[in-house]
Fold these 2 entries.
Entry 1:
Amino acid sequence: MKRWLVLSPLALLALMIGFGACKSRVKPESNEILFWHWMTDRDKVFQELAQQYEQQTGVKVLVRLYAPVEAYSQNVSVGAQTNSLPDIYGILGDTKIKASFIKAGHVLRLDEALDADNGAWKKSFYKEALETSYFPPVNQFNVPQGIYGVPIDVMTIPMIYNKKLFSKAGLDPNKPPETWSQFIEAGKKLKESGVTGFVSGWAEGWLIYSMATDLAHNLMGADKVMDTFRGKVPYTDPQWVELLGAFDELKKAGFADNSMVSMLNKYAEQAFATEHSGITFNGSWSINVFEGMNPNLELGVFRVPALSNKFPRTVWGAAGSVFNVNAKSPNKEKAVAFLKWLTEPDQAKFMLGRTKNIPATKGLEKEFPAIINDFAGMMDKSIHPSRFPVSEEPKVIETFTKGIQAILIGEKTPAIVSREVQAAKEKSLKLNP
Amino acid sequence: MKVFWRGIFSSLTRFRASIVSNYLFVLPALIMFLTFNVYPFYKVFQMSFRDWNGIDPGGGTFIWLNNFKEALFYDSTWWESVRNAGTITLLALTLQNFLALVLAWIVDRGVRGAQFYRSVFFLPPILSGVVVGLVWNWIFRGEAGILNRCLTQIGLGGWTHAWFSDIRTALPALAVVHMWKGFGWAFIILLAGFQGIPRELYEAARVDGANEFSVFWRITVPLMVPVFTLVGVLTILGSMQLYDLVVVTTLGGPSGHTEVPMFTILRELTDNPRFGYASCLGVVFGFILVFVSIVQLQVAKRTKAE
Amino acid sequence: MIQVEKKMTFERITLSLRRILSSIACHGILATVAFTCLFPLVWMFSSALKTQRSVLTDMSLIPSHPQFVNFTKAWTEGNFGSYFLNSVIYTVGVVFGVLFIASLAAYAFARLQFPGKNLLYYMFLATIMIPVPGAVVAIYVLIMKLGLIDTRLGYILPQINGSFAVGLFILKPFFERIPIELEDAARIDGCGRMGIWWNVLIPLARPALAVVALFTAITVWNEFILAQLILQDQALMPLTKGLLTFWGGRLAQDHLMMAGATITVVPIIIAYVFLQKHIIAGATAGAVKG
């Protein structure tokens, strides 16, 4: 009896360690590739493709989904800290974070594989899609030049509108607004016809930021935007105030959904798909969601309307799901081979059919549904921070998007917000010179 | 002589052995305590002087007091989050605890169905914060929100509101949810306090001709001071550390008006990993909490002395 | 004489009238608050029985076509079955850990002598009162260094630590009240300290152990922050985190979310209905810990 009692703590401990079943993620070379991703909507397709791959080559690909996105990012950063990243994974986050992964030796440089056979693999991609993972010879993070990721598919985030609701409101369904004032007029007319004029999940800051960046490029041109990031142009510059003023105008016109700033994007998608709203700002991935919820929608797309005619209208995107290969993995060659297979036209076509995302692989344009064609057609006008020569500090971006939210709820004026953003910018310059 | 020494020695070892084996009983608790309380306490202080993104090997660089400088003087988001939690705490201290006091007093006087009410009031506190947040998120949501739909249905369409999107209502709405979940705690503790007061004291006062109000003021309140203090401290600690409700309702929005300290700390840790800075905010916040609790205890001590 | 009697009846009537009025007022307040406590839960349950569309439009409390299939869908497609199982595993694991550690320590603090006893006791108790919010960061780093991120053990251990002090606080006075003669009898029978702890104290302390177990179980069942930080693998998530994951998922499926929320709270409500006395005792003791 007594001996049993003394042993019981040990037994308990053993039991608990059994619970833990300490996963050792560092494995020797094997015929198994571990693949982490974050895309709920693409999980089934990845699983099916992995099965096909196993039948063809005998290499088993373990597809693991981590959702939501925050959980995935956290898991990846833990993986980096404990050297237990899988063979294939994607790094979400800005260029700075990608750079720190690369510098810590977690990411394989892929130039050799891409350039093999006269660069056949490299040439199979859209140029913009590959540039997302490219570090130029001289960059502010001191990362060795090269391409570090394989794009699977790409997205663009334009304005999407409901053609039937446009007709009902007396608007021409084939003539979407081109300028900001046309957009405001259209929104008001939609509101008069009984639906909200505009909805988007603007509780999520990145959606606001991408639209604002589009507007900035159109209003002042890429060079001036980059100079602002560099700290050479202040955010109190009249043109930045004018840009913020556009959001003030949107607020005052009163046609946008009034709970937009606390709305998650999927609820905005729901409102748009159920025809409660005429226009939304959303990415190409949402088409599959819209069709799932309401197959009778007739949709059109247009780029974020122009604030000026000096510079072209841009569209946020041509980046998307990029996968990296773990440089520390003993299976890295197999991992590269799998990614190569995954981006071959046959597999890309399979994914296109199932998820309606724009493939990063060229040559499937004929297979695109009409609406996807519209999204893809904007690719050459696209902008994305991963291709910017400089990147803005996250704190400044946060202040900026929060400021726009504050304008949209009528709390602050554009002038005040511009001063606050500039103050945040100066602080960040002082703290990270 | 030899026998004497041997006797001393053997009794000493026996004594030691029994003492050491007595420690065995607290050993598991002690190991837990050292691993999960002492070590993290030390670690969080150490990290708060460093700049580390959680990815760079080697734990980042030592940057003296820069984190504290940023937290104390530059980070307006942080201080807004502290202010928001402070507002919720004040509302909980006053409104929530007043309601709990009234309810506990009524139930203590013995109404019919007291048992039923007691059970129902303590239901929200034992529910998961995530569930409570999700359900209330549903109530306060924009067009599809239950509150707005109810208002429209009873002809008060003009009162509908984007509750979580308007700066005037977002924080109060969050506070309402928090108080809904929290008042049962205060209620149950206050009720236990009331029931601990000997009934004879009341009888004696009534025989002296005191009315209901003066009985409450002269007998109940002085005896309840320790309970009030306890409820106060628990309310402060609970409200300041609010987290789960925010994650499933407002996510800190609109424009950061409902951001609270725990939310800010964990965001620094996960979104844009800055382990050093998150630790530093944790230290600062810990000091704030300890300070506020001490003030509360001192105030209670002084009132008791009077 | 008659007048006096009349006056007295009049007074009696006004008195009883006042009593009735105040009782109506009291019940009015109590009933309103009780209604507000229950309504959101009733609404949650009723929404769980609607369809994806009617959940947004149907205002009835009892839907005309209750969709019980939502629960099976949430259980299988929404993964709530696996979350539920995980929650049970975590709860059982933590409760046993806490009971073991706290009762051993409570026995030592109540009966045995060793240097530094009081200091240790107050240090343990201080962990309940003194908040270290930043410690979440450090615990996260610690769990990471131990290689326990995304493991069941990594989620169970910090929670045992978080709850054993309250258990100790409830159990120690209980052990002290147990008459020492019972132990003497056991000692004569040849029991050592371990034997006394197991054969005498544990059986006698069953009511107190039940209180500790229930209180701990509710805390663990509702735990969220640690789950948020430590568990990212869907196969390991407990209900709270699972529910958040479902909410953060790609599609807006409020009816299934409400079904999941119902699945999350029903065990707690059932336990509460039957074991209310112990739960409230544990909760107040847990609160009065200071």
Entry 2:
Amino acid sequence: MTTILVIEDDVQTAREIEAALVDHGYEARMASTGREGLVKAVGESYDAIILDRMLPGDLDGLGILTTLRTAGVSTPVLILSALSAVDERVRGLKAGGDDYLTKPFDFLELTARLDALMRRNVGPAAETTLRVGDLEIDLLTHSVCRRGQTIELLPREYRLLEYLMRHAGQVVTRTMLFEEVWHYRYDEPTNVIDVHIGKLRRKIDLGSQASMIQTVRGSGYILDANH
Amino acid sequence: MRIIELYRTTGFRLALSFLALFGLTSVVLYTFIDIEVKDFLTEKVDDWVLREGRSLTKLNVQTIAARLDNRKNGEFDAERPMTLFNAAHERLAGSPIPFPMGYDGATTPFEFGADSGMPGVPFRGLTWTLPGGEILLVAESISEVKEFNEVLFGAMLLAGGCTALFGLAGAVLIGTGAVRHFDAVTQATRKIVAGDLSGRLPSQGVGGDTGRLIAVVNEMLDEIERLMREVKGVCDNIAHDLRTPLTRLLAGLDRARRRATNVEDYANSVDEAIVETQGILKTFAALLRISEVEDGARRAGFVPVDLAAIVADAIELYEPLAEEKEINLTSSIQESDPRPLPGDPSLLFEAVANLIDNALKFSPKGGNVEVHLERKGDLTRLRVTDDGPGIPEADRANVLRRFYRAEPSRHAPGNGLGLSLVAAIARLHGIKLDIAGGTGTTVTLEHNAASASSLG
């Protein structure tokens, strides 16, 4: 079972995060102070750590992170912060964080990013093709085919599809797509991404009724073979 | 007005110190002139006395006596008395003046006769003892020198007095003006502190440094007033704009409690509530972002940015939307930037995307949106033109304000924060934002590398 360590001092937020993780099918271990969090993070093994940037006391989020990385713990860390300034984000990532989420956040965003983080942790496979159901893309030639039929995609559409396929079965949010496919950090992307997804959907669905790309709760997408 | 306050003013103190300095200079000048003039005149007298005495002593006693008695027929010469005395200091010939006792063997000219009561005193002269024991006195009146001194002293005294009087009056005048002005400034400041932000420091009739300072302070007050008004406007607008979704949220929850009979009803209501809440959170996030951008701290993370690439990316992002709305999205981008603009790529992208988003939002089906990027020397100019309804002239400044929505767009989707964010991003980058109309709207972003490089 996937176990996540949550280091968060605010009781209410911690409880909500715990509930969201449990609902998502993860096990959550909680720590309410920096010291407790550090002890747990070093002593036990977790699949990922959710770390509040601002913690009371002498050991704050960045301090824990630096200590962890120095101690050789490479568990993926998602930093939560009320500070949205770009340089804060950069500092968080430089200290060894793997992703950064600004409060207030959507729990869909939190779990989606967590999934992506742990997937990243598996490490890049040496494969040259990706396959989800009967949809297949060639990572070298960028060609896409489904049921033996070649599908012509624009470069951006291909990158969108590749990202969705790399995270097949996981929820991917608009913000994540924007960051990964367009390479701009955009806290509140317009629904213009829906239009891109819509076009991609029409191309890969080949006229079938059920789409491979489902919209999740208004702000996320999931690509799945089961539809 | 209190004397203490007068004395405290810089103007008064300055005037007083100048007065004192001037007085001191005058005294020094007077003394100098006095000494110089006296020396000059005395030298002239000595010169004559020595010359005359020497030439006379070359003659014998009888000739001297005859010559002295013959001068002006023996009358007393008050200007240049010359007298011959015997060894007992009795007058033998010449001007009838008493012998200057005590100066028998003098070798340098001396002054005498000041208390003799004769006309022309005091004199300055020298005695010569002749071979026969007689003494010759040659002298010249130096009363003029004395008079000159007195007149000079009097004039200096009068001038000094007048100067002191006028100077003091001027100092009082300047000081009073300053006190009065500072009283006015103090009062105006107190009013402003008390909350009247429309108040300004009085600047009439104040020139120079103080005037400049007051002008700057007044400019600062203008800016503070503008910001305060903006904050107030924002607060009003937040209250107003959030009331609508909050009311909807409350109504939906209320309805669920009254009417929902099964789990599905509740689930629907919860979903609706989530959507409303997300909308509210988004509005807050947008507000926070604007203040974050306006903070200016992001300038620290500026990197050289290729605006052409950003504009191309933004256009590419919106192409499918334009297609869907059947709007003709065209662009002309002048490539190659020898000097990339320093900036935050994500923010600039957001600004350009917002402009294109707006243009697409307000263009009619089948309309045209044109994005144009050009460079001329230091100038980089981005123009986004649509042929939507346009923004009325009176509304153009207002659309940059947070939450403001011009009448025709009041019911379009969005939160009225887009252009404020663009304006904030533009300000952060030292970019000039201009909204013009004709048919439709043209928004221009203009960056001048020469003037923006001085940005902090």
